[in-house]
Amino acid sequence: MGVEERGKLFYKDVLPFAAMIMIELMLVGGNTLFKSASVEGINSYVFTFYVFLLGFIFLLPCLIINYRSTSIPPIKFSIVGKIAMLSVLMYLSQIFGYIGLKYSSPTLSSIMSNLSPAFTFVLAFFFRMEKIHLRSYTSLAKIIGTIISISGAVIATLYSGPSLLSSSISMNWIIGGVLLAGQYFLLAFALVAQAKILQVYSVDLMVVFVFGLSGLFVAGLAALVMANDVEAWKLKSNAVLITVLYMVRRL
Questions:
Q1: Residues near 131 by beta carbon (within 8 Å), at least 6 away in sequence
Q2: Where does it reside (predicted)?
């Protein structure tokens, strides 16, 4: 096998597989970090606000540099409203995920993440963005994969180990599983909505900017209402700060 063929094999087979492993490791790492931070008493609403705040701070220079010498493409108010609703969906997804993690474990959260492509497929079909042909192996594979993902999530939620459903620990596990399922349903809904928005307004950086600004406003308002104690706004350790920085990538 020549050098060129090896290179094609690497980019076609090895690199995508390695990327998927890295994404899963980053997902598990983020879940584990937040679970550790939650033990220290971090408020989920304040935590989410800090994540949106840092995300917006990192994004702002990109927008300034990109449109320093060119004008910002005009955007209709209706598009701004849709992007704002998208930010609400993503914010609720984050809140459901963080609270669900407090009730359950990083393991369950990582398992439930497999619901995201299943929910996305169902919603894409519902909004006529995905077509199903029962005689097509591709469509059948998607349907079977969706059923397996949802079934696995249900089993993981209802079974947390040797303890039975009558215990309070198991009830917390179920509550966490339901919240995590809600997280990935909202995430899938947000992805479909984002695709719809980009079809009518394709300036992705501007969409992300409006999304970040709207999300920051929603997260700040919710944090002010739900965490009126000054102590709740303090990042009590370096571990919590590292977790906030790490979670910015999930926006």
A1: 125, 139
A2: Membrane
| pLDDT tens, residue by residue, 164-201 | 444 445 778 888 888 999 999 998 899 889 988 998 98
| φ, ψ for residue 42, nearest 5 deg | -70, 135
Phi, psi dihedral angles at 205 (to 5 degrees) = -65, -40
Could you tell me the pTM of the whole model? Answer: 0.79
Convert the pLDDT of each residue in 25-46 to its tens digit. Answer: 777 777 788 877 777 778 889 9
Q: What is the DSSP letter of 134?
A: T
SS3 label, residue 202: coil
Contact between 153 and 183 under an 8 Å Cβ cutoff? The reply is no
Nearest to 188 by CA among 131, 111, 117: 117
